[in-house]
């Protein structure tokens, strides 16, 4: 085993076979969060996370094959503290509450602040694109899909439109994030929520 495959002597944390050691996992995620806060996504590396966490690089690579995978794990952990399923009772109110919480997370969390860097890297890296498309998006839109599904059950929108409206919503937010327009713009958020909540298609009786 090479020197790079080992954590600093005396403070190495191990795994438990194929299972994750909770102490090691927590140490890695904490180190990754701190590194993001200090150096952003450009300075984020598994080598440095391993050094700070006292964990072996093979262990980290087994759990998170790329730095994009590790970033997604930190993003998920951080987002849970900022953004919850609002359950306001109607689609417009749910979207407003969720969007304002999401924008706060993107502004104030280390992972949220560097998220656009992952999107940018995904344009030139197959590994980052796979992490974004196959791991990040399915998990991140789960709560949103539930919000739209509840609205369909209440009859606010057509069930057949859920996926299209979900994509419209994500597109609006990602455009705002990528162009750095995620200040607490209540008027813009209210307008978006009103338009999406009112976008019920006209369907002829069969």
Automatic annotation (TrEMBL):
InterPro entries given in the database record: Homeodomain-like_sf (IPR009057), HTH-type_TetR-like_transc_reg (IPR050109), HTH_TetR (IPR001647), Tet_transcr_reg_TetR-rel_C_sf (IPR036271), TetR_C (IPR011075)
Keyword Cell inner membrane carried by entry: no
Keywords assigned: DNA-binding, Transcription, Transcription regulation
Pfam family, one: TetR_C_11
Origin superkingdom: Bacteria
Record's keyword annotation contains Manganese: no
Record PROSITE patterns: HTH_TETR_2
Residue ranges flagged as DNA-binding region: 45-64
Domain HTH tetR-type residues, every copy: 22-82
Entry protein name: TetR/AcrR family transcriptional regulator
